[in-house]
Amino acid sequence: MNAKLKADYEAKLTEIERLKAENEAIRQRNQEASQATHQANQAAQAAYQEKLADIERIKAENAAIRNRNAKAQQEAERQNQALQAAYEAKLAEIKQIESENEAIRKRNEQAGQATNQTNQAAQAAYQEKLAEIERIKAENAAIHDRNAKARQEAERQNQQVLADYEKQHGEAAQALKDYLAKAPDNVTLDPIFSAEPATAPNGDVIKDEFTYNSADNTFVWTKQLHDWKKICW
Fold first, then answer.
1. Which UniProt keywords apply (predicted)?
2. Which run of H or E residues covers position 19?
């Protein structure tokens, strides 16, 4: 009997040791898991606090936005009321103007019937004036063309007169030179020769004068048209 109890006791001790070993293993696993869970909880707590701070920030921003929106809404309402009042005033003004325009239109319609005939007569006179203006413009164009041709012809004639006069002057100058060559050294001529003036078709007067200075034996030729002097010798 004692042997059986002892065997049972040994078996129970073995079972107890096994359970202790299992419990120790479970405790260690739980401790490791607890540490991991604690770290995860700390990270989650930090994230939670961060989220809370973010939420508070957003709430503050939302409150500021709501405040601004409320003020903006009040300002918009005030402006809308002012615009509505201005609109009502303009509408009343427009109605008054429309009423006045209607009265003016009726008066103009009545007056238009009377002035229509006057306008027709004025239009006919206007067309007549336009025709007269076109005729005058055509005449002016013809006159302008004739004047241009006349100016060209006058210029040609002026050039011809000048060329003829230059030729005569050359002949007169040569004759005077020949005369002075034969004159005594102490001869005094002041002036000794004056060519006949020549008048160009454009009204220019061409005149030569010759003056001899015996003091320095010089001969001065003054040409009136071109206003210049030349020492001949």
1. Coiled coil
2. helix 2-182
Instruction: Return the sign of the alpha-carbon dihedral for residues 62, 65, 67, 70.
Output: negative
How crowded is residue 219: how many other Cβ atoms within 10 Å of its Cβ? 19
Closest CA to 169 of 116, 217, 114, 228: 228
pTM above 0.70, yes or no: no
Question: Residue 231: how many CB atoms within 10 A of its CB?
Answer: 9
| CB-based contact 198:206 (threshold 8 Å) | yes
Burial of residue 162 (CB within 10 Å: 0-12, 13-18, 19+) is middle
DSSP-derived letter for residue 221 is: E
CA distance 168 to 170: 5
Asked whether residue 221 carries a pLDDT value surpassing 60, the answer given is no
pLDDT one-digit tens code per residue, 135-167: 888 888 888 888 888 888 888 887 887 787 777
